[in-house]
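User: I'm writing a short report section on ligand binding and want a predicted complex to refer to. Could you take this sequence and calcium ion and write out the structure as tokens? A short remark afterwards would be nice.
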Amino acid sequence: MKAKKLLITALATGTLAAGLAVPAQAATLYDNGGYSKALGTWNDGTTYVGDGANDKASSISINKRHTRLYADANHTGPSVYLTHDWNDLRGLTAGLAWWQTWDNRISSFSK
Ligand SMILES: [Ca+2]
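Assistant: Sure. The structure tokens for the complex follow:
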């Protein structure tokens, strides 16, 4: 009886869904900054985001899952480990040469 009450409480507050439902998808890419014009959503093991999204992302949301981004397909090339969303990838330079940014550069993801 007590367990049932806890379950109902959890459902009512949304904590059960948040605690158990691990998102299947890791990252959503957007063509523009500010999470505008979604290109698609991909999971952690994506080896290539496809021609429609390759080298186009200007902002990214990672659904609270840490994600490594790669400049090239198949998890190759320069990479950066993200721990939070970025609303303007022009401001992210880690892992690249000093004159480069992650704007219009992402090609694949891993965990
Ligand atoms: Ca873009």
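A remark for your report: The chain has one domain: 25-110. Residues 31, 56, 58, 104 surround calcium ion (CB under 6 Å).
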